[in-house]
Amino acid sequence: MALLQLDNISVAYDQQYILKDFNLSLEKGQLLSLLGPSGCGKTTTLRLIAGFLDAKDGSFRFEGKDYTRTPINKRNFGLVFQSYALFPHLSVYENVAFGLRIRKVKDDEIRKRVMKMLEIVSLHGFEDRFPGALSGGQKQRVAIARALVIEPDLLLFDEPLSNLDANLRVNMRVEIRRIQQELGITTVYVSHDQEECFSISDKVAVMNKGVIEQLDHPSVIFKYPKTEFVGRFIGFNNFITFTERQADGDAVLLTVNGLPFRAKKVPGMSAGMKGAIRPDDLLAGTENEISEGPNVLDGTVKVSTYLGRSYQYIVETALGEFTVNKEMLSPFENGQRIRLLVPPEKLVLVD
Amino acid sequence: MQNKSYGLTLFTFLVYLFLLGPLILIAIASFEPSTVLKFPLTGFSLKWYKNVFEVGLFMSTFKTSVIVSLLGNFLALLLGVPAAYALSRGSFRGKNTLNAIFLSPVLIPGIVLGFTLLKFIIISLHIPIYAALLIGHTVIMLPFIIRVIGSSLSNFDFAIEEASLSLGSSRLATFFKVVLPNIRSGIIAAVLIAFLESFNNVDISIFMSGPGISTLPIQMLTYVQNYFDPTIAALSVMLMIFTAVIMFLIERLLGLSYFTKR
Amino acid sequence: MKKRYLYMLLMPGLLFLTLFMIFPLAATVGSTLFQNGQFTFSHYTQFLTDAYFLEILGTTLLVSFMTTIICVAIGFPVAYYISKLPPRGKSILLALAIFPLLTSSVVRSFSWMIVLGKNGLINNALMGIGLIQEPLSILYTPTAMIIGLVHLFLPLILITLVGVMENINHDLVEAAQSLGASRFSAFRKIVVPLSIPGLIIGSILVFVGSLTAYTTPALLGGKQRVISTFLYQNAITLNDWNAASAIATMMMIITFVVIAIMNKAAAKFNPKG
User: Fold this and answer.
1) Alpha-carbon distance B234 to B230, whole Å?
2) How far is CA B17 from the centre of its chain?
3) pLDDT above 70 covers what percent of chain A?
4) Which of A52, B48, B154, C231 could covalently link to C247 via disulfide, CB atoms 3.0 to 4.6 Å apart?
5) Count: domains in chain A
């Protein structure tokens, strides 16, 4: 049985639905990410779980109990804010101790737990500092310690790393994953950063317009997006809309404008008519390098840019523009005729 | 968290009743037909509104008030705009001290300032009362002009000014053609705020009334200390409408947040 | 921009203030320390041993203190209520608080004469329902002064506090609640301590304002003098320039001492770091 269960939840602001008939469940000990662009409903979902928002319809069950109307302060969920929300008038020690003082824990017990938690987040020796004197990364650690010290039943992160610079972001997400696994604490993590979500999650839910488009292990989503939205969001920049589709053993035969394509069949494959492929997976070459045949497109180089490791070309073809990345010493020229090959095992069908 | 506390809502309502109730009462009282203010009203009449215009002293002091406020405003702008510009544009030694000096007239108790102005400008320097009144009002308007225009200037991107200079415009032309148009709403708001401050002033003006010279608030003060008829209520209503209009304009120009900042 | 130009722009205003504010104030303070060319504190010792003056000073301080306490006690919860309202409601209540603030103090004090006077609303109402036979004399007492001053300064502390409370990141309250704090304890442990600097600033404005207000005590205080009306009386009615100068100086000193103490306190309560 799932630890956390949202059933047909609806949330509305001013008659406008942000979530409608929303469902989500989560197993104990897992880290689930809600990923999506701003306005997709991920933060609303998190705030609903935290108890800041009331559901208009539907129910929220936690550990088998109905939590739909449980006030925030009775939920025992740890929450880490985007703004950190450290109490500026309290020292690091008192910030972390806050939840324990509310729970009337004895002073020596508080001392023990706070110090241990500061140890875990590598902030030993910072107890007497005030939030104003901490760096962004240190503030984030205090915020995490403060949420964890109450031994929450669920840990919630609201875009915790978006205020940090790039290097620190990578370090902190490793840190978050380490602490989460060390303590085996069930976690819901909200972010709009795909790489961040994929790197730390057991499960990722990609959201769009208040709906989960795909919920799966990150590696599955990365390879096999289910919908065009998910595909685009995770970097499948090229789409082909086919007109015919038929099964052929372990492959799918597709046609558009009389051009034949093959795609490898995978379990749970979408029945959609759209093919998606990443710029990195598309092969490009001269007419000598790639011979005519199925899965091949003729095109002209329109724009070329240098990405560092490879060159990126925008190629004009009979099926529209394609973006392709290719590592090469001397790049194609603008206007040069080239061929694109779509490897059948890299072509993913989406809704 | 929609469950508001009804106790606090009721309390807030009562506090606002306390704040606005007396002002509403003035409005009601102004329609009393008899010569003595009392409740409940004995009838309904607009004659006291007419009477306001028939009391010569109200009309003449109103004129003085408007002239002093407008002229003082003009002087305060002449002195204040360059100072506000220099204080927000440059960084130089003593800037904080100078800033504090320019804002200090609001910190000095008005009654003290009024008294010292009387003692030195009128008695020692023999400056005529009318001129002294103007000087006093300019002093109290200056900090408002500098504060409001200064905060307008602090939102102004001085790169625009540099762009104008780089295109060959002189400093003075740049100020009038580029800087001024961009802080126009701040200047208008500053003028309105300073005007209210000066128009309502009692503490300075009370020391600077002489034969035939007085401002409207001082005249009203003298009047209510001696008479108790609804004329003053009618006049108050007119002043409140006037205040509401100016407040509405300030809100349009600066937003209410101007007032909540400290 | 060349510094020379900057100083040139500042010069006219500075000269004006020096001539018409700083010099008169300095000369007033200076004049209180001399009698017949001799340095002396006698102007002050005279006052500070005069029972009548001490009574006035005491009344002034008491009235200002009471006004401040009442403004804080009323203003704090109401400001919190306003700061939590949705934008539209907040703007309306703020506007309704700012309006009296911008209205002439003569008008506002006069309104209380209507309410508190012998034939005023309160007396008429109380006699109407037979609760009292004789009209109460509330007007022309220190109580009337306090009521008028609270009315005068409550909007000031309200809008100051709303400004401060609006700036408290709402995430902090949510964080406290997620850590188990009830709405009330989140208010007590987060909002109250973070509002204290603003509360102190608001209190300075109210206290100093009450201490030096002229119109309200002049209209509502009757024969009861406070230092501002006493200063006026000495200067204009009695033409006692020395006395008036000494009173003016003392008012300034008290004002600056209060501001200095409160500022220090505000700095102490400011969030660290």
Assistant:
1) 6
2) 25
3) 100
4) C231
5) 2
β-bridge mates for residue A26, sequence order? A4
In B, which residues are within 8 Å of C112 by CB distance? 22
Question: Using one digit for the tens of pLDDT, what is the confidence trace for A263-286?
Answer: 888 887 888 888 999 999 999 888
User: What residues form DSSP beta bridges with A349?
Assistant: A275
Decide if C180 and A150 are in contact by the 8 Å CB cutoff: yes
**Cis-peptide, bond into residue B40, ω within 30° of zero:** yes
The residue ranges of chain C whose pLDDT is under 50 are 273
Q: What class, spelled out in words, does domain C44-269 have in CATH?
A: mainly alpha
Confidence class for position B261, pLDDT limits 50, 70, 90: low
Fold of B54-232+242-260: MetI-like fold (1.10.3720)
Question: pLDDT tens digits for C13-26?
Answer: 999 999 999 999 99
CB contact under 8 A, C273 and A129: yes
A211 touches C: beta carbon within 8 Å: no
User: Which ranges of chain A have pLDDT less than 70?
Assistant: 1
Q: Which of the two residues, C263 and B215, has the higher pLDDT score?
A: B215
Last residue of a domain, one of A229, A262, A292: A229
Q: Residue C25 and residue B113: Cβ atoms within 8 Å?
A: yes
Position B115 scores a pLDDT of 94
* Cβ–Cβ gap A150/C179 under 8 Å: yes
Q: Which of C108, C124, C162 sits opposite B39 (nearest CB)?
A: C124
> So where are chain C's domains?
44-269
Within 8 A of B196 by CB-CB distance, chain C residues are: 102
How much of chain B, in percent, has pLDDT values that exceed 90? 44
Phi and psi at residue C39, in whole multiples of 5°? -70, 130
Instruction: Determine the residue of chain B that is closest to C80 in CA distance.
Output: B8
Closest to A102 (Cβ–Cβ): which among C171, C179, C271? C179
* Structure tokens belonging to residue C120: 């005023």
Q: How many CB atoms lie within 10 A of CB A175?
A: 19
Of A52, A102, A129, which is closest to C174 when you measure between CB atoms? A52
A146 in contact with chain C, both atoms CB, cutoff 8 A: yes
Query: Residue A78 maps to which CATH number?
Result: 3.40.50.300
- Interchain CB distance below 8 Å, A132 and C190: no
Full-model pTM: 0.81
